Amino acid sequence: MGNEENIETGGPADAVDAVAVDEAPQGVWELVPLTPTFMEAEHGQYASAIVKALDDPLVRNIALPSALRG
What we know:
Helix content is 23%, strand content 0%. It is mainly α. The radius of gyration is 24 Å and the shape is elongated.
């Protein structure tokens, strides 16, 4: 404690002045949504295999790998 630094100003964390939202500079952040999207060419075969497995009463577990290797 006591050694924290304010990310915006580079100064001590307790020396930050409050800035109203209206006074904040515009266009500082260019955020990109991380919402997943379904791409048929990349995900179609994999999604079909999962749907098929879900219809099989003998399938009780489905592992979802973090990366597919082709």
